Amino acid sequence: SMFKKALKFVVYAFALYIIFQIVIVVVFGIEFFWSSRLPNKKKDLENEYATQYNLSADQLQQFKSTKSYFQFLTTDEADSLRHYLDQALKELNDSNSTSSQIPIP
Questions:
Q1: CB of 57 closer than 8 Å to CB of 41
Q2: With helix as H, strand as E and coil as C, how does 31-92 read?
Q3: Which residues contact 69 (CB under 8 A, 6 or more apart)?
Q4: What is the dihedral angle through the alpha carbons of 96, 59, 72, 84, rounded to the nearest 10 degrees?
Q5: Element holding 14 (H helix, E strand)
Q6: CA 60/CA 28 separation, integer angstroms
Q7: 62, 92 contact by CB (below 8 A)
Q8: 20-71 pLDDT, tens digit each
Q9: What is the distance between the terminal CA atoms of the chain, rounded to a whole angstrom?
Q10: What's the chain's Rg over C-alpha atoms?
């Protein structure tokens, strides 16, 4: 009976180990997938904003020197990208005179 208990324990431990390995592979796989796609997504979003808000070369330069744009570049959270770009636009507007405001919906 002691042997059976030990065997059962070993089987359970092994099963848990296998499941744990699978979870790690899946989690890292998703992480890797996202991090490899993120630079493209950032580039696309950046272009989308430049087009949508019709930013001039000068405005784009200012836009890229905002604090929020830096956060946009350095973040790994795909969900935060638009938020940071919106913030960057606000920063741009705050630093500009009312005559050169970018209309933000």
A1: no
A2: HHHHHHHHHHHHHHHHHHHHHHCCCCHHHHHHHCCCHHHHHHHHCCCHHHHHHHHHHHHHHH
A3: 63, 84, 85, 88
A4: 40
A5: helix 2-52
A6: 35
A7: yes
A8: 999 998 888 887 887 788 899 999 999 999 999 999 999 999 999 999 999 9
A9: 72
A10: 24
CA 3, CA 7: separation in Å to the nearest integer?
6
List CB contacts of 82: < 8 A, sequence separation 6 or more. 45
Nearest-10 crossing angle of helices 81-95, 67-74: 160
Provide the token pair at 26.
Answer: 């899946």
Q: Looking at residue 104, what DSSP letter applies?
A: -
Structure tokens at 17: 């180990």
How much is the pTM? 0.64
